[in-house]
Task: inverse folding
């Protein structure tokens, strides 16, 4: 099952909050790469959580 839209939004917001605490308003390549890495890791964990759930739950 795909990650529900509301859950994807919650994860994205939480990752951004964590990233802001670490990097603030930096826009350099290192900060952007870290943001992408944090988001990918969180989404992978969520995919693992939702992989065995039926589509209608």
Result:
């Amino acid at each position: 099952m795909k990650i529900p839209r509301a859950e994807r939004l919650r994860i994205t917001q939480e990752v951004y909050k964590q990233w802001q605490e670490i990097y603030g308003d930096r826009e350099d390549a290192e900060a952007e790469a870290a943001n992408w890495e944090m988001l990918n890791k969180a989404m992978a964990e969520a995919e693992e959580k939702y992989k065995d759930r039926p589509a209608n739950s």
Observations:
- The first helix runs from residue 5 to 23.
